[in-house]
Amino acid sequence: MRTLYHLSLSPFSRKVRVVLAEKQLDSTLKAEMVWDRRQDFLALNPAGTVPVLVDEDGTVVVGSVAIAEYLDEVYVEPPMIPGTAGERAEVRRLVAWFDEKFDREVTTLLVGEKLMKRFLGLGEPDSTAIRAGHANIATHLDYLDFLAERRNWLAGDRFSLADVTAASHLSCVDYIGDVPWDRHPEAKAWYARVKSRPSFRSLLSDHIPGTRPPTHYADLDF
């Protein structure tokens, strides 16, 4: 059986879960508490990070981008990085935008400080970091509004890994109620389309013990 080692509120793990579901590939999800530094897991990925995919033939693939690219090559339909060379480059550009820039400027500052820090017993949240995250997300949502107003999907005419990546990060921030959707109608309409896809719905059923998401979190109609 195909196995995905993941954490439920990791946007990188969520990205791979959506790609697997889009391609209708069955998998067993194994929550990996990476802070435990479990030796069997470190044998799969010495870096000790998730996600890690073990395919049915035993192939081990580490990291969300590598896994997504692997799945697109081995299980080609539907393609998550579709189109011409230029169109694929745009998908990859936006994937990097959210996995690197958005993660550094928003996800880590908000989810990391407000949820993961408490969960791991690392002390009180840093209010300066949280204020920066709130300021930064407004800029990113402005950019999402710009893209969603001009394109059918973020990278162009087709649903792609760019949409999956952006929505995976936003879903984690939305879990703690820190996405100001009402001030960004185009981004909100785009995200409503993404979270209504069958591939995305399992993410919305995840719950972190002791922390409840806002009521709109799993509402497909927002």
Topology:
Elements: E1 3-6, H1 11-22, E2 28-31, H2 39-44, E3 52-54, E4 60-62, H3 64-74, H4 85-119, H5 127-150, H6 161-175, H7 185-195, H8 198-201
Parallel strand pairs: 1-2
Antiparallel strand pairs: 1-3, 3-4
Helix pairs in contact: 1-3, 1-6, 4-5, 4-6, 5-7
Summarize the structure.
The chain has 222 residues and is α+β, with helices and mostly antiparallel strands. It has helices at 11-22, 39-44, 64-74, 85-119, 127-150, 161-175, 185-195, 198-201, and strands at residues 3-6, 28-31, 52-54, 60-62.
Q: What's the CATH topology label of the domain at 85-198?
A: Glutathione S-transferase Yfyf (Class Pi), Chain A, domain 2
Strand order of the largest sheet: 2-1-3-4
Please report the number of helical segments.
8
Span between termini = 35 Å
Overview of this protein structure:
The structure is a single chain. The chain is of the alpha+beta class and 222 residues long. It has a domain at 85-198: Glutathione S-transferase Yfyf (Class Pi), Chain A, domain 2. It is 53% helix and 6% strand. It has helices at 11-22, 39-44, 64-74, 85-119, 127-150, 161-175, 185-195, 198-201, and strands at residues 3-6, 28-31, 52-54, 60-62. A hairpin with a 5-residue loop joins strand 3 and strand 4 (60-62). Helix 1 (11-22) runs parallel beside helix 3, helix 1 packs across helix 6 (161-175) and helix 5 packs across helix 7 (185-195). It is globular, with a radius of gyration of 17 Å. The N and C termini lie far apart (35 Å). The model has no long low-confidence stretch (mean pLDDT 94).
